[in-house]
Amino acid sequence: MEINDTHDPNRRSWVESANLAGTDFPIQNLPLGVFSNAGGTPRGGIAIGDRILDLAAAVETGLFRGDAEDVARAAMEPALNSLMALGNDAASALRAAASAILTEGSADRGKAEPCLVPMAGATMALPTRIGSFTDFLTSLDHTLRMSPNGKSPPAFDRIPIAYHGRATTVCVSGTPLVRPRGQFANPDGATAYGPEPAQDFELELGIFVGPGNRLGEPIAIDEAGAHIFGYCLLNDWSARGIQFFESTPLGPFLGKSMMTSISPWVVTTEALVPFAAPARPREPGKEPPEHLTSTGNQVGGGLDLAMFADWSTEAMRERNAPAETVVRTNFRGTYWTPAQMLCHHASNGCELRSGDLFGSGTVSGPTPESRACLAEINEKGARTIAIGGETRTWLEDGDEVSFRAKAERDGYASIGFGACQGRVLPCFASGGR
Ligand code: CA
């Protein structure tokens, strides 16, 4: 995918809110999502400023023509799996058409204006029917801080390490996290069963699979980018007490499966072309294996994306105090690129399907402010954290965490992702609701 007219920083929209400085959704972004309003059926839409272009209405009124109409029909479904199966060239045709329709001076404005829905009144749904969810481990700094011996595991330099997550409990932003109940080791070493005492978040990038592969057929590293449809923000909520007790030797299970949150807008691979970054340079002897290496991936497989986590307590919100930003990090420092994750995932012939979701792993960097989960910030529970005049070690009931991201580069319009937000609710009484 290359830079084209849709990335032109001088392009403005007749939707005025899309031209405001700081908006996540200028005309250069045009992310896709699934929404409903006024009790209507969920359907595909494109974010523009503080509005959603209703693709079902737009198709109905004849706004899309030719190839773009076929793609828009796939994109107007109640899930974006069919669209993602069509691949990035199809998404590019839809993007070019939507950009032309929404550009200042467009002759289509009169037909398009009735197809706009205020974002504030819409309910967002999951963007795809997520058949499978995989969570990776891509930050060296996260790995070192979380490691029992301060070293990365032997395989870390050779493979993007991952585990199979729980697809059915991936929820859209805004869904509250009910504190899980489970087994964990108390400080005295005795095992207890009860409300999770060490509830954490992990700031990650979500990655959606485009066309995918057939069972048994790997995807070459140079082809891998064409199978990445787009990105969202992902909160891999982590119950550390449960996780640390259960994870040896098979990895996380109940410590992660209670819920994963994602932001509702899928920022396409093409929208992020201006923000491509080199893959992280490796120390001699720690280079990735040949089948996960290519010139294209080395030059532009990374992504320059600033990512943030904001935290508020119930008391802060009661006095209208703003949330405090507790994580400031960037995806470009990660050890593995999304294309390497996808290539590795399919390398044994595992079938990846359109609309499947990957989590990048916690996007932590080397600086204190770029520690992207509480277990790193509080040094696995050893230190307290000051937040809004209160003291925390882990998330307490009523605490709210919200992620945001911004891609910025000189000469291009900045684009954002919208929010991935969730509030922690007390766990149910033992035995059910
Ligand atoms: Ca994770």
What is the fold's blueprint, element by element?
Layout: E1 32-36, E2 43-48, E3 51-54, H1 55-60, H2 67-75, H3 81-86, H4 88-102, H5 109-112, E4 116-118, E5 123-125, E6 133-137, H6 140-146, E7 161-164, E8 170-172, E9 177-178, E10 181-185, E11 191-195, E12 199-200, E13 203-209, H7 221-224, E14 228-235, E15 238-239, H8 240-246, H9 254-257, E16 260-262, E17 267-268, E18 276-277, H10 295-300, E19 302-303, E20 306-312, H11 314-318, E21 324-330, H12 338-346, E22 357-359, H13 374-377, E23 385-387, E24 390-392, E25 400-407, E26 415-416, E27 420-425
Parallel strand pairs: 6-22, 8-16, 9-27
Antiparallel strand pairs: 1-2, 1-5, 2-3, 3-4, 6-7, 10-11, 12-15, 13-14, 13-22, 14-16, 14-17, 18-19, 20-21, 20-25, 23-24, 25-26, 25-27
Keywords:
433 residues, alpha+beta, SH3 type barrels, 2 domains, eight-stranded mixed sheet, 13 helices, binds calcium ion
Low-confidence stretches: none
Bound compounds, each kind once, are:
calcium ion
Q: From the 3D structure, determine the CATH topology of the largest domain.
A: Fumarylacetoacetate hydrolase, domain 2
How many angstroms does the end-to-end distance come to? 50 Å
Considering DSSP H and I runs of 4 or more, what fraction of the residues is helical?
10-25%
Structural features, described:
With 433 residues, the protein is of the alpha+beta class. It folds into two domains: 5-125, SH3 type barrels, CATH 2.30.30; 133-425, Fumarylacetoacetase-like, C-terminal domain (Fumarylacetoacetate hydrolase, domain 2), CATH 3.90.850. Helix content is 20%, strand content 26%. The chain has 13 helices and 27 strands. The chain has helices spanning 55-60, 67-75, 81-86, 88-102, 109-112, 140-146, 221-224, 240-246, 254-257, 295-300, 314-318, 338-346, 374-377, and strands spanning 32-36, 43-48, 51-54, 116-118, 123-125, 133-137, 161-164, 170-172, 177-178, 181-185, 191-195, 199-200, 203-209, 228-235, 238-239, 260-262, 267-268, 276-277, 302-303, 306-312, 324-330, 357-359, 385-387, 390-392, 400-407, 415-416, 420-425. Strands 6, 7, 8, 13, 14, 16, 17 and 22 form an eight-stranded mixed β-sheet that branches. A hairpin with a 5-residue loop joins β10 (181-185) and β11. α2 crosses α4 (88-102). The longest helix has 15 residues, at 88-102. It is globular, with a radius of gyration of 21 Å. The model has no long low-confidence stretch (mean pLDDT 97). The structure holds calcium ion. Calcium ion (CA) binds at residues 135, 202, 204, 236, 359, 361-362. Calcium ion is lined by residues 135, 202, 204, 236, 359, 361-362.
